[in-house]
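Attaching the record inline, Q. Sequence:
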Amino acid sequence: MRRAPLVVFLAWGCASLVWSAAQRLGHPASGIPPDVHPVLWREGNLAVVRLEKAVDAARDRIQPGAVVAFACARDGDTFYGYHWASYLLPEHQVLALRDVPDLRGVHYVLTDKTPATSRGLKLVSQLPAGWMLFRVRGEALP
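Structure, as predicted:
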């Protein structure tokens, strides 16, 4: 009976820690989208393998030093995919497409199944796994 308040207090503390961590991870200010679980974007998983194949195919078509904007069909995937693209393309500056809405200073757009024809883009290559590489019209290459 003497331990009941301690057990209740400990259970309340654990529950509030789990709740606050869940709120933080799903909160927009954390930068981590709540609808995409990070386990889907671990090395060796299908999404990463598909992106690696696309980046390997695009690497020869992208000029050295070019700025590449990255986007996924699902906005939540852009968070993890953008970081993977940055890792896989260390010789380029990779930006999330949502961060450069006017495409100023961007030379290429790497995207999957996202229609991007209305932004003054020219298709450079169809890449493996449904990815596409577009060239931004009007931007001089470095």
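The mean pLDDT is 80. The helical segments are 4-26, 46-59, 75-88.

More tomorrow.
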